TrEMBL record:
Signal peptide: none
Residue ranges with Basic and acidic residues bias: 1-13, 34-56
Domain Small EDRK-rich factor-like N-terminal: 1-36
Region (Disordered): 1-67
UniProt-recorded name of the protein: Small EDRK-rich factor-like N-terminal domain-containing protein
Stretches with biased composition (Low complexity): 57-67
Alphabetized Pfam families for the sequence: SERF-like_N
Amino acid sequence: MTRGNQRDQDRLKAQKKAAAGKSKPKESAANLQKRKEADAEILRAKQKKKEEEKAAADAAAAKAGGG
């Protein structure tokens, strides 16, 4: 009757996995908000840089094509 043993082993494995997940500390609302704001600022900076690069490339293409 190996199936019963396998079920028990799987149950123990699942319990260990669930216990490991619970040990992580929860992020507080203030820290979460700060992290979200920091991430948003980083994304805005990246987007601004991309737009500047695109504008520079468009300007260069206009110069080369217009001459």
